[in-house]
Amino acid sequence: MPDGPVVLNNTPLVALWTIGRLDLLRDLFGEVLIPQAVEAEFLAIDRSLRERSLADAPWVRTVVLAQPRRALAFAGLDRGEAEVMALAEERGARLVVLDERKARRFAERLELPLTGTLGLLLSAKEAGLIDSVALWVDRIREAGLHLRIDLVKRVLELAGESSP
Hints:
Elements (H helix, E strand, L loop, with lengths): L5 E3 L1 H9 L4 H7 L2 E4 H8 L3 H9 L4 E4 L15 H13 L3 E3 L3 H9 L4 E2 L1 H10 L6 H10 L6 H10 L6
Parallel strand pairs: 1-2, 1-4, 2-3, 4-5
């Protein structure tokens, strides 16, 4: 994988936090960056619990945009997504992790290397960090988070696992 940071959006952060697997970010990438707006979104619910989780996961590092106005160029995205795009461009990200379809389209137009929560789980299995993608997909769903069934089926096929 080329140099440059991995930049993470809120939805994958919440998904991994919800299933207690922020450690996968460390084990896959060493460190991931989140812009301030993503941190604010993450901390908007269960603030004290989530603050402790971030403090216990120093490999998830919040950074300030060097050019905050750059995020304004991404009209139509929420603030966190726009800052993810701006940070990825500023830092020459080797990977952007986000799930929202509209934000993914922006990332593709910018030719940013891209994955999402399911891609992280697939990478974790390929790296031998988890035994089953389906198990963790089930835990994400049990927590009330939505995953598109067509994407789940495709990722499970790639992982050599059966579809639900």
